[in-house]
Amino acid sequence: MKYTIIIEETVSEELTLEAENEEEALEEARRLYRQGKWVLEPGNLVEVRFQVLEEEKAD
Question: Where are the alpha helices (DSSP H) in 1-59?
């Protein structure tokens, strides 16, 4: 049988920015991330998950 496997990695990195308050800081962080100005580097791995998506039976 063939199996489709999903591997999901969670990475984490601490970044700093200036803002008037917490809400503004989160909005700015999301904007910078979406624009590709903040890119997380591999290597700061927090978690790995493995999941079997489906099973394909051979004829």
Answer: 22-34
CB 51 within 8 A of CB 5: yes
- Mean pLDDT over each residue of the chain, to the nearest integer: 91
Nearest to 17 by CA among 38, 45, 44, 1: 38
CA proximity to 53, closest of 3, 2, 14, 1: 3
Bridge partners for 51 per DSSP? 6
Going by the DSSP 8-state scheme, the letter that residue 40 receives in this structure is P
Given a cut of 70, whether residue 58 has pLDDT beyond it is no
Q: Where do the domains of the chain lie?
A: 2-56
Distance CA 39, CA 19 (A): 20
**pTM for this one?**
0.65
